[in-house]
Amino acid sequence: MDFSEKLQLLRKENKLSQEELAQKLNITRQAVAKWESGANLPDVDNLLILSDLFCISLDRLVKSDNGNCVKSILQNKKTNEVQSKEFLFEGKKNTYAAGAPQDKVSSRPYSHDLTYKRGNFLYIDTYLGSEIFLGEEALWIDKNPVWAMNYQGRVLHEMFDGKIFKNALVLGCEKQLYRGPLVYQHKKFSYHCKYDGDFNWFQGYEEMFYESEKIYEGYFHGGIVKD
Asked: How many domains would you assign to the chain?
């Protein structure tokens, strides 16, 4: 497999169009098309950017081979994402949503911290405030941060029920990992959540009602982090 074939494979596996890849490199789509057709090659600066963007060494990117190394990298990437999602489900389900006790020592003055560990995976949820709050959930693998989500919310009415809210968050862990499910109903309470994006980059909004009265609202956004 030569460079042009590797570039096509890496771009498609990362769900990027030629236009989107060109924008990340600040070049024209036609330049990317020429690379993928084998009519031209990137300069050293663009090769370095591609190497960093696709998490593949420069040596593997430019040297011809049978394609196994690229496929192996892509497979490992998918495996890590699946494992990350599975662990996030565990972490979310066993901390705030489960009513788990907070860490005895907080990371910042008056912060509320909840930690969950398994092997080389670490999940921490830390937030400030209560009726009006702001926080962050994050995931580490081998002490390296790989994913994070910021969130902010506020209680709008005294009818807000924290137990019902936590039930919604548990169900959301199983569906889309970010906050609660698209819709959750419990007696006269209803929870709604909408979002755009995927595990790598997303943003959304959640709200809770008692009958027709809005009693809570919140915003969240996040995705993978990379040095």
From this structure: 2
